[in-house]
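We treat protein structure as text, and this decision shapes the records that our systems exchange. This encoding replaces a full spatial description with a residue-level series of whole-number codes. Below, we set out a record of this kind in full and without editing:
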Amino acid sequence: MSLIAALTGNRPTRIAVAAVLGLGSVAGLGLAADAATGRVRTGGENLVVRSGPGTSYAKVGRISSGTKIDIICQARGTTVTGRYGTSSWWNKIGTNRYVSDAFVYTGSDGRVAPLCKGSGSTNPTPTGAIKDDYPYRGATSGVDRWNFYKGQCTSFAAWRVNHNLGVAFHNHYKNVHWGNAQNWDNAARAAGIPVYSTPRVGDIAVRSSGSYGHVAYVAKVNADGSFMVEEYNHVRPDTYSYRRATRGEGSEQFSAFIRFKR
């Protein structure tokens, strides 16, 4: 059957389309190696495009909800919870352009495109207690039991300190007002709680830069000095994420680590 017949007959197939686009071989039936398509679904807000498969990579653009995308290949990276559940798959949509599969409808919960070359497990998959067990999951307004706004990074960090560390922490802990994340390292010092420049598991990581700063829970420290954090309201508004981070002053980094007594 000719290529034209394959495209115009009663049974159009992906094989013919792939050949036209140069994505695969008709004779070789290379469907498993073909690129795929998906549609971005975020619930309204734009989806961040990163330079690599994870939230620690630089932001290089945004895609509006409803946009159809071509998925060149897929790689494992930061685990993200989104519109379509929790996933560590990242879809490559161009040179140094990746989006989280958790916000892309592909018709499958698994891999739909070939693995990107060199896409080893650069970010460990969460295990054990590393999970979204936040009691206000899905909340976007109101005040939590610790007197922080629900869905914010401060509220999730307060939950981790209470639940994981067994410390009865709240927004006026030790008669100090903790407030926004950017204040937390100074608040800890005022409360007599040690603050360090290197992380340990169980620390609260603090970034003081930005309008409000950011805090996260250190879940794992890697051999190379980087570390894995659990957080809310960073990758997506009011949403849980688990990612690799490093020390520094950048928007994806942390410079101080609060060590509550356990």
